[in-house]
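pls ignore typos typing on phone
nicotinamide-adenine-dinucleotide + seq
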Amino acid sequence: MKKIGFIGLGNMGKGMSINLAKENHKIIGYDINHSTYDYFKDQDVLIAENLNSLMNESEIIITMLPDGSAVEKVWSEIINYSKPNQYLVDCSTIDVKTSIKMQMQAKKKGLFTLDAPVSGGVIGADQGTLTFMVGGNSDVYNDIKFLFEIMGKNSILCGDEGAGQSAKICNNMLLASTMIAVGESFNLGKNLGLDLDKLFEVISTSTGSCWAVNSYCPIKGIGPTSPADRDFEGGFATALMYKDLGLAVDAATETKSKINYGIQTYEKYKRVTENNRGNFDFSNIINE
Ligand code: NAD
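k done
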């Protein structure tokens, strides 16, 4: 049994922390928004009064926070309260620079660190089927891998510190573009008078098949259950996808990489977010 501090108990952190608790690890959670604690009333998860007490109680600390500035704020504080040999694992999606900067600060205090952003969404977090893209030292990865195996199905050590974040923004840029293409394809099929059930059957078993069609088809009543069936409520917020695309655009600028589709994709998600549809699932891009 490990003592694990879990900071950020939102859409993703909720399921991830509960899955760890189910495997008999002692979980102590913390979130700046105390209303998230309501969910944990009947769960085997303790709540820390503050970050200092969480650090005193934990061998391994996982953060699952919205963005780089939240991670910088929380990590700066917990590094202050830390003891050497504690493990800090950040599963949030943030910019590579902040990730590396915070990990270097932690290492100076004798801590072990990883960046380990995830793919698989809220369903993957709840069901323990996430994919972890990991950056950091291989010994540290091997020490922590058993936790990724509880919270997910796959974990891939992509390289040194920051490599997990790099892999994550490449994956999400591709997913965001694919979802636009899927929407255009189904809209064209509809205008051509096609039965969309039949179109789903064709595409999902043909060369156009992809996760955005086969597992997340953005049309109500077509394919497996997806946020489209709930009028795009829940799921992965458009605003978070827009944030991830911003990270990809910044990274491309820094590395002088050509990402023409990526920039058009970024602009489209920006429009949807700014038109007050940022809280809806990113697949609502089909209506743009
Ligand atoms: P969320 O907003 O639901 O949860 C984040 C939580 O962090 C919130 O409960 C918030 O109150 C808490 N928080 C913010 N600042 C804090 C602070 N200073 N101290 C303590 N707690 C603080 O977001 P989410 O959907 O759970 O996503 C978390 C991360 O995972 C993001 O980086 C996101 O990009 C990434 N992600 C999300 C999904 C998804 O489908 N939702 C999928 C993959 C990756």
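The chain has a mean pLDDT of 96. The pocket of nicotinamide-adenine-dinucleotide is lined by residues 7-13, 31-33, 36, 64-66, 70, 73-74, 92-93, 118, 121-122, 236, 240 (CB under 6 Å). more later
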